[in-house]
Specification:
Blueprint (H helix, E strand, L loop, with lengths): L1 E2 L4 E2 L4 E8 L6 H14 L7 E8 L4 E8 L2 H11 L3 H7 L15 E4 L6
Antiparallel strand pairs: 1-2, 3-5, 3-6, 4-5
Organism: Leptospira kirschneri str. H1
Protein name: Antibiotic biosynthesis monooxygenase
InterPro entries: Dimeric_a/b-barrel (IPR011008)
């Protein structure tokens, strides 16, 4: 187990890195509203969900950074996303999104070390 200053972090934790570009005809406030709906009505209800961070860069570039208890729960949530209407609404705001394959373009990482 790796320990940070706020809580214990298991080396089994998985981080989902999901970069995307916001469609030109969509605005940030719509993205943030839909993101909150996704959090409340889908992600927070998934087994193994730990936390999520929405990161913003320039040129409408964003990253969803999602922490999962282990690889199995991350994979199960991705499968559940394929049939979720709230996920479909969220993905409809993205240039790269494939509604039939939510894991497309998503990278999965295991925590190797934490430094402070």
């Amino acid at each position: 187990m790796i320990k940070n200053k706020n809580d214990e972090v298991s080396t089994e934790w998985i981080i989902e890195w999901a970069p995307f570009t916001l469609l030109d005809d969509k605005n940030e406030s719509l993205l943030l509203k839909t993101s909150k709906d996704l959090q409340k009505n889908f992600l927070s209800k998934q087994e193994g969900f730990i936390k999520r961070e929405l990161l913003k860069s320039s040129n409408n570039r964003w990253v969803d950074l999602v922490y999962w208890k282990n690889k199995e729960t991350a994979e199960k949530a991705m499968k559940n996303a394929a049939s979720s209407s709230i996920c479909s609404q969220y993905f409809s705001l993205m240039v790269e999104a494939d509604h039939n394959n939510p894991s497309e373009g998503v990278s999965i990482f295991a925590i190797a070390e934490i430094y402070h």
